[in-house]
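In the current project phase, the collection of sequences with tokenised folds has grown. One resulting record follows, to show the layout:
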Amino acid sequence: MTGALVALALLAGCGGGAGLGAALQGGLASLTGTGGAAASTAAAPAGTAADPATLRRVELATIGIVGTAQQLTASGGRETFAGPEGFTYTLHDGMLVSTRGLSHDLMAADIRQSRAALRAGGGEALRVHETLDGLDRIVRSEFACTITARGAETIEIGNRRKEARRFDENCRGEGVIFDNRYWIDGSGRIVSSRQFVNLSVAYLRSSDL
């Protein structure tokens, strides 16, 4: 675990028992398609071009995956995307809450406090992740996080440059340290991010096209 901690610290520089409570269980059901709320399908019909608004650039550098992700569903601020190599990931208001099809998937994440701190321009937050271990058991991990505003930056979004405000989220848990990064446009939307998945995959980068 010490080795994993060192590895994660270097990655940051480079730029759980089941159950998060009833609210999170409901969110997980919507992520996996088992909830009662209907989700709107955004996939383009066969033979037609996909709407650029439903596409994102995605990268998992540690395992060599990079390409375009297509939005599958959108409902209540949650968007699920299908990425290269058959994996999917779900964002809630731009923040990563689950993956499927990766090693040691992030099954669910309670990011409510992180989201509130981000909207407030910074602050302290507790986030909870539920991740699969090597025996397909759910492991629950808690992280104490600090969200800090880093000021305005010009970033590349697709083929254009865009002004955005950068926020860093530094999180510490038992044997794990990670740094999430978010770039937010003038409307308050996360247009680009680098977010932690797990020790095996490290970070998922996702941005508008």
In short: Confidence is low (pLDDT under 50) at residues 1-19, 21-47.
